[in-house]
Structure of Anaerobic ribonucleoside-triphosphate reductase-activating protein:
Amino acid sequence: MKVMGIHHDSVVDGEGLRTVIFFAGCPHHCFGCHNPESWNLKNGKEMSVQEIMDEVLSNPLTDITFSGGEPFCQAKEVKELARELKKLNKNIWMYTGYTIEQLKSSEDKHVGELLEYCDVLVDGPFIIEKRDITLPFRGSSNQRIIKLK
């Protein structure tokens, strides 16, 4: 997987204390994106599931957030990581520029399988005209927090 970075102890990327994995690659290119260097898949560092697990487990008391970039750009690989994290009973939040409707209608089976491991989905592109810093856990009012589990 191509990973931009892993940050521990976040309190702004989902409920509770979280380890956030920022994946590389994003087709959305939202104007005003807070992480535009993540758009290019080549900007990420290649990491295996085990390397990411080792980093995540170095801080075992946190739950997990997948962000980006766009985690669904690497759905096949990211679902393997999600599967291993769920074996450890980790709660997984996922940020995506896609809507849940787009994800559910995807013809890529890995997208649906990755979605199955997600507890909470924050969906929709960031829209700068709808930016609202008072909203918890999202950047613009069009984005939804959807509890899947």
Observations:
- The two ends are 25 Å apart (CA to CA).
- Residues 75-87 form the longest helix (13 residues).
